[in-house]
Protein backbone atom coordinates (compact mmCIF):
# COMPACT_ATOMS: atom_id res chain seq x y z
CA UNK A 1 0.00 0.00 0.00
CA UNK A 2 1.06 3.53 -0.76
CA UNK A 3 -0.24 6.93 0.39
CA UNK A 4 -2.51 8.91 -1.92
CA UNK A 5 -4.77 11.93 -1.51
CA UNK A 6 -8.57 11.94 -1.59
CA UNK A 7 -10.69 15.07 -1.90
CA UNK A 8 -13.18 15.40 0.95
CA UNK A 9 -15.71 17.94 2.21
CA UNK A 10 -14.73 19.05 5.70
CA UNK A 11 -15.64 22.11 7.75
CA UNK A 12 -17.47 23.77 4.86
CA UNK A 13 -14.77 23.34 2.21
CA UNK A 14 -13.00 20.75 0.11
CA UNK A 15 -9.66 19.56 1.39
CA UNK A 16 -7.24 16.73 0.64
CA UNK A 17 -6.74 13.86 3.06
CA UNK A 18 -4.04 11.20 2.93
CA UNK A 19 -5.23 7.61 2.67
CA UNK A 20 -3.56 4.28 1.89
CA UNK A 21 -4.32 2.60 -1.41
CA UNK A 22 -2.83 0.84 -4.42
CA UNK A 23 -2.79 1.62 -8.12
CA UNK A 24 -5.31 -0.22 -10.29
CA UNK A 25 -5.93 -0.38 -14.02
CA UNK A 26 -9.44 0.18 -15.31
CA UNK A 27 -9.91 -1.68 -18.63
CA UNK A 28 -10.46 0.80 -21.45
CA UNK A 29 -9.01 3.64 -19.35
CA UNK A 30 -5.39 2.55 -19.11
CA UNK A 31 -4.14 6.07 -19.93
CA UNK A 32 -5.54 7.36 -16.62
CA UNK A 33 -4.30 6.78 -13.09
CA UNK A 34 -6.62 5.36 -10.42
CA UNK A 35 -6.10 3.87 -6.97
CA UNK A 36 -8.27 1.62 -4.84
CA UNK A 37 -8.78 2.13 -1.10
CA UNK A 38 -11.15 1.55 1.77
CA UNK A 39 -14.19 3.86 1.60
CA UNK A 40 -14.38 7.36 3.01
CA UNK A 41 -17.86 8.74 3.74
CA UNK A 42 -19.17 11.70 1.79
CA UNK A 43 -18.18 13.98 4.68
CA UNK A 44 -14.63 12.69 4.68
CA UNK A 45 -14.68 10.64 7.84
CA UNK A 46 -13.31 7.12 7.69
CA UNK A 47 -15.97 4.50 8.33
CA UNK A 48 -15.03 3.19 11.76
CA UNK A 49 -18.21 2.20 13.58
CA UNK A 50 -19.98 -1.13 13.10
CA UNK A 51 -22.80 0.27 10.97
CA UNK A 52 -20.28 1.90 8.64
CA UNK A 53 -17.32 -0.47 8.83
CA UNK A 54 -14.25 -0.13 6.66
CA UNK A 55 -15.55 -2.95 4.49
CA UNK A 56 -15.69 -2.63 0.75
CA UNK A 57 -13.57 -0.63 -1.65
CA UNK A 58 -13.62 2.69 -3.50
CA UNK A 59 -11.67 3.95 -6.52
CA UNK A 60 -10.25 7.46 -6.84
CA UNK A 61 -8.42 9.25 -9.66
CA UNK A 62 -4.85 10.00 -8.51
CA UNK A 63 -4.27 13.54 -9.81
CA UNK A 64 -7.51 15.03 -8.43
CA UNK A 65 -8.37 12.84 -5.45
CA UNK A 66 -11.89 12.59 -6.86
CA UNK A 67 -13.97 9.44 -7.28
CA UNK A 68 -15.60 8.81 -10.68
CA UNK A 69 -19.19 8.58 -9.45
CA UNK A 70 -20.29 5.84 -7.08
CA UNK A 71 -17.13 3.80 -7.73
CA UNK A 72 -17.54 1.35 -4.84
CA UNK A 73 -17.81 -2.39 -4.40
CA UNK A 74 -17.73 -5.15 -1.79
CA UNK A 75 -14.61 -6.67 -3.38
CA UNK A 76 -11.78 -5.07 -5.33
CA UNK A 77 -12.91 -6.84 -8.54
CA UNK A 78 -16.50 -5.67 -8.05
CA UNK A 79 -15.24 -2.13 -7.46
CA UNK A 80 -13.07 -2.16 -10.60
CA UNK A 81 -15.96 -3.55 -12.68
CA UNK A 82 -18.37 -0.93 -11.29
CA UNK A 83 -15.88 1.84 -12.03
CA UNK A 84 -15.43 0.54 -15.58
CA UNK A 85 -19.23 0.61 -16.09
CA UNK A 86 -19.42 4.19 -14.78
CA UNK A 87 -16.53 5.37 -16.96
CA UNK A 88 -17.88 3.60 -20.05
CA UNK A 89 -21.19 5.40 -19.54
CA UNK A 90 -19.54 8.80 -18.98
CA UNK A 91 -16.91 8.39 -21.69
CA UNK A 92 -13.38 9.68 -22.10
CA UNK A 93 -14.34 13.30 -22.85
CA UNK A 94 -16.39 13.69 -19.67
CA UNK A 95 -13.60 12.05 -17.66
CA UNK A 96 -11.05 14.48 -19.14
CA UNK A 97 -13.31 17.44 -18.27
CA UNK A 98 -13.72 16.20 -14.70
CA UNK A 99 -9.97 15.71 -14.28
CA UNK A 100 -9.23 19.17 -15.70
CA UNK A 101 -11.81 20.68 -13.35
CA UNK A 102 -10.45 18.79 -10.34
CA UNK A 103 -6.87 19.82 -11.09
CA UNK A 104 -7.91 23.48 -11.40
CA UNK A 105 -9.88 23.60 -8.15
Topology:
Blueprint: E1 2-10, E2 13-24, E3 34-37, E4 57-61, E5 72-73, H1 76-104
Quick summary of this structure?
The chain has one domain.
Helical content class: 25-40%
Give the tally of structural domains.
1
What structural category arises from helix and sheet content? alpha+beta
How far is the first residue's CA from the last residue's CA?
A: 27 Å
The major pleated sheet works out as:
5 strands, antiparallel
Average pLDDT over all residues: 87
Report the sheet-strand fraction.
25-35%
Number of helices: 1
Order of helices and strands: EEEEEH
| Apparent shape | globular
Rg over alpha carbons: 13 Å
Write down how many β-strands occur, each being a DSSP E stretch of 2 or more residues.
5
Strand neighbour order, sheet with most strands: 1-2-3-4-5
Runs in which pLDDT lies below 50 for 5 or more consecutive residues are 45-53
Task: Describe the model.
With about 100 residues, this protein is an alpha+beta fold. The chain has one domain (about 1-105). The chain is about 30% helix and about 30% strand. The chain contains one helix and five strands. It has one helix spanning about 75-105; strands at about 1-10, 15-25, 35, 55-60, 70-75. The protein has a five-stranded antiparallel β-sheet. It is globular.
Key words describing this protein structure:
105 residues; alpha+beta; five-stranded antiparallel beta sheet; 30% strand
Amino acid sequence: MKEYKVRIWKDGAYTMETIEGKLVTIPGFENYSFFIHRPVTRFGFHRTNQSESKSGWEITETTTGMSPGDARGKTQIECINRTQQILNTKGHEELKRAINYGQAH
